[in-house]
Amino acid sequence: MTTRHTGTDATPPKSACPDCHVGIGQTHLEGCDVARCLATGLQRLGHAASCRCPQDIWTGRWPGEADCAEFGWMLGPGLPDLTRLLTTATWDPVAHRWTRPSKPTTTTEGETR
């Protein structure tokens, strides 16, 4: 995955994946529940065996955290709104990252997303 500026709301990078314990820049081990399928952006564990996506690497941050910080979708310092990311953003399988929706949507609370 590509490393991007994450703003000041993101947590500091962690040197090792909390599940498979690989270091930053290393490929997640098979069976790691933190690794993402780079074709869908969703959890790699249990995805279709026929998927030909490349292996995900540990960036030092939880998947989606950098995208939330970049989009300003934080619930508080160090607390990315991953639910908003998964329900509002679109996964780009070529760039291996989440992108903002092309048209803003309005929530039931009246907040523009």
Concise overview:
This protein has 113 residues and is mostly loops.
Largest sheet data = 2 strands, antiparallel
Q: Largest beta sheet: what is the strand line-up?
A: 1-2
Helix content range:
10-25%
Number of strands: 4
Structural class: little secondary structure
How big is the Rg?
14 Å
Question: Tally the helices: what do you get?
Answer: 2
User: Distance between termini?
Assistant: 25 Å
Task: Give average pLDDT, whole number.
Answer: 86
Explain this structure.
By secondary structure, this protein is low in regular secondary structure. The chain has one domain (1-113). Helix content is 12%, strand content 10%. The protein contains two helices and four strands; from the N terminus they run H-E-E-H-E-E. The strands form two sheets. It has a two-stranded antiparallel ribbon. A two-stranded antiparallel sheet has the order 3-4. Strand 1 and strand 2 (79-80) form a beta hairpin. The model is unreliable at 1-6 (pLDDT under 50).
